[in-house]
Amino acid sequence: MLQTPIPIEENNEPLVSLAYYSPRIKVYPFYYHQKINGSLPDCYVRAGVAERLVQAAERLDDGYTLVVLDGWRPLSVQQALYDQFKSVLLAQGWREGEELFAELSKYVAKPSVEPDRPSRHLTGGAVDVTIAGPNGWLDMGTAFDDFTERARTHYFEQVDKPDDHALYIRTNRRLLHRLMAEAGFTNYSEEWWHYDFGNQAWALQTGQPAALYGGILSLE
Question: Is residue 171 within 8 Å of residue 140, measured between CB atoms?
Fold first, then answer.
C-alpha cells in the first residue's frame, strides 16, 4: 500500500531561468544536449531554489562555479528518461515485475501528474548539479546519470583503504554536499548530483509538515 503523501501547500513561486541568473552559476542542460524528446535549452527552477543555488555557489572559491545539469523537467522528458532506462534494464536481462520497477524507480521516478504525488523534477524543486573549476568539471567518481552503486553519494566514504584518487573524489563530493546542505537542500542518497528543496522529498527529510511546491505542467 502506498504511504500517504506529505501534503502540499503550494506557495506559487514562479519558475525562473538560470541561464543568466548569476555569474557563479552555469547551465549545461544535459538532456537537451542528448536530444531527449521535449527537453529545453535552459534550466529552470523555482525562485526560492534559484536563490539557494546562488547561496551555495557564492561559497565556492574564486574560479569555481556551480553547474546545473537539470531542474524543472517537463513530463515528456520524464517519460522519455523512464522509458529509456527501462529499456536498458530489460536489455540487461531484467523481467517485467516488481523487482524491475523497484530498480527503475531508484534512479528515474515514474512520471506522475497526480496532484498529491508529483514527480520531484516536475515541481521545480529538484536540481541536478556539479562543480566546475579552472580545469573543467570536478571529478565526482562517476558521470552524471550513472546508475550504479558508485553514484551513491556516500559510496567513497565507505571505500576500504582509499587511494589518492578516491580521496580526491570523496573531497569533491563532500564539498558539493556541504555547500548544498548549507543552502537548505537535501540530497537523494542514490545520486551524488541530485538535491531537493521545497518538494515532498525535501519535506520528508527535514520533517516539514507540508511541501511548498506541487507539480508544474508547463512554463506558461
Answer: no
Alpha helices in the chain (DSSP H): 30-33, 47-57, 75-91, 98-107, 164-182, 200-206
The residues spanned by each domain of the chain are 15-80+111-206
Asked if residue 51 lies in contact with residue 127, where contact means CB atoms within 8 angstroms, the answer is no
Q: Give residue-wise pLDDT tens across range 83-134.
A: 876 777 778 777 787 777 677 667 777 777 677 899 999 999 999 999 999 9
Class of domain 15-80+111-206: alpha beta
* Secondary structure class of 126 (helix, strand, coil): strand
Radius of gyration of the chain (CA): 17
* Residue 138 three-state SS: coil
Tens of pLDDT, residue by residue over 31-61, are 999 999 899 999 999 999 999 999 999 999 9
Q: What is the DSSP string of 163-217?
A: -HHHHHHHHHHHHHHHHHHHTT-EE-TT-TTEEESSSHHHHHHHT-SSBS-----
